[in-house]
Write a structure and sequence with these properties.
mainly beta; single chain; two-stranded antiparallel sheet
Length: about 60
């Protein structure tokens, strides 16, 4: 996946600790993300995740909303 220098308006992100978070713009800097599952039974939203997430140096607080 390629990373741009600015946020992608098609991918919203509120996880400040992600390496691909575009700061105060609330966007992801990747051109595309991978969505993965956290268990075999994906019948609820909680069973999915952003598989493109990488821990960055933006701090340890994810600031999830």
């Amino acid at each position: 996946m390629q990373r741009s220098n600015t946020g992608n308006p098609s991918i919203k992100c509120s996880v400040n600790s992600c390496a691909y978070h575009a700061g105060s713009s609330g966007m992801c800097t990747l051109q595309a993300i991978q969505v993965g599952c956290t268990c075999k039974d994906v019948s609820k939203c909680e069973a999915t995740e952003c598989a493109s997430f990488q821990l960055g140096d933006h701090g340890s607080n994810c600031s999830c909303r």
